[in-house]
Amino acid sequence: MILPIVAYGDPVLRKKAAPIAKDFPELDTLVANMFDTMYGASGVGLAAPQIGKAIRLFVVDATPFADDEDLSEEEQSRLKTFKKAFINPEILEETGDEWAFNEGCLSIPGVNEDVFRCPNIKIKYQDLEFNEHIEEFDGLLARVIQHEYDHIEGILFTDKLSSLKKRIIKSKLAGISKGKTNADYRMRFPDKKMR
Question: pTM to 2 decimals?
Answer without folding.
Answer: 0.94
